[in-house]
Amino acid sequence: MSINSEFLLGEFMKHLESLNKEKCISLIKEALDNKSISIPNLYENVLAKGLANISSNEKEQEITVWEEHVQSGIVRTAIEMSYPYILEKRDSIGNGDLKAIVFCQEEEYHELGARMITDFLTLLGFNAVFVGANTPKLEAIDAIIDFNPDLVCISVTNYFHLMTLKDLINDLRNVKSRHNIKFKILVGGYAIDNTPSVKEKISPDYYANSFEELKKIRSDLL
Ligand code: B12
Q1: Residue from 110, 202, 210 to probe ligand 1 pocket by mutation (most atoms less than 8 Å from CB)
Q2: Rounded distance between C-alpha atoms, residue 144 and residue 163, angstroms
Q3: What pLDDT digit, counting tens, does each position of 7-53 carry?
Q4: What region, left, alpha or beta, does residue 81 occupy, with left being phi > 0 and alpha being psi -120 to 50 degrees?
Q5: Is the distance from the beta carbon of residue 109 to the nearest atom of ligand 1 less than 6 Å?
Q6: Which atom of ligand 1 is nearest to the CA of 71?
Q7: Domains of the chain, earliest start first
Q8: pTM here?
C-alpha cells in the first residue's frame, strides 16, 4: 500500500523538530519495509522538504545551529539506512555500464543533496561513487582520471561557490581533452536552483534537480 508523502512528511517533521532520531528512523524504516513509498518520493518529498523546512532565506532562522546539525545528522542516517533498499530495487533494473562520480567543491559542506543524487544514479543502474563534500579540485581531477566516469556531477549549495564553478568546469574540460576521456558535466543543488541565469553563465552539459530529470539524462547518455 502506498503512503501519502505529505502525511509521512508531517509525521517526520514532528519527530525531527523534537530531535527524536529513534522515531524518525523507525518511521522511515517502516515505510521502506512496507514498500509504501519509493526512494525518489521519500528523498524528494519527505527528507529534502523536511530539511528545507528547517531554515530558508525567506524564513527567519528559528532553531540554533547545533539543532540544525542534529537534524541534518538524522537525515544523513535516513539516507544511509536506505542503501540496502536502493540495492534491492537496483538489482531488478540491473547494473549498467554507465559510471558517475559525485562531489562538492572545496569548503562546501552541504552534502545531503549530493548523497541523494548518488543514490538516484545507483537506482538508475549507474555505477555511482560519492567522493565527498569539501573535495579539493586536484582530488576531484585525480578521481575522474582514475575512475573514468561517463558523468561528473557537482553539487553546489552555497552561492559563494558559484564563483569558482565556472573555472572548475573549464579545468575539467581541459583535463578531458588532455587525457582523451569522455565525460559529461552535470550540475545541481540549492545555489543553482535558486540563482537566475546561472546555468547559462556556467554552461554545464546538463542541469537537473530531480530523479525524473536524471532519468532523461541517462537515456541521453545511452
Ligand atoms: C542541512 C543544512 C546545513 C548542514 C549541512 C549538513 C550536511 N552534512 O550536508 C550544516 C549545519 C552543516 C550547514 C552549514 C551551513 N549552512 Co546550511 N543549510 C542546511 C539546510 C537546512 C538544508 C540543506 C539540505 O541538505 N537540503 C536537502 C537537499 C537534499 O536539498 P538540495 O540541496 O536542495 O538538493 C536537491 C536538489 O537541489 C538536487 N541536487 C542537490 N545537489 C545536486 C547535484 C546534482 C549534480 C544534481 C543533478 C542535483 C542536485 O537534488 C536534491 C533533491 O531534490 C539549508 C536550508 C534550505 N532551505 O535548504 C541550509 C542552507 C543551505 N545553509 C546555508 C548556510 C548559509 C550555511 C552556513 C554558511 C552557515 C550556517 N547556517 O551554519 C554553513 C556553511 C557550511 C559550508 N561551508 O558549506 C544557507 C545557504 C545560502 C546560500 N545558498 O548561500 C541555507 C539555504 C540556509 C539559509 N540561511 O537560507 N547547513
Answers
A1: 110
A2: 22
A3: 999 999 999 999 999 999 999 999 999 999 999 999 999 999 999 98
A4: alpha
A5: yes
A6: 1
A7: 5-81 (1.10.1240), 94-221 (3.40.50.280)
A8: 0.95
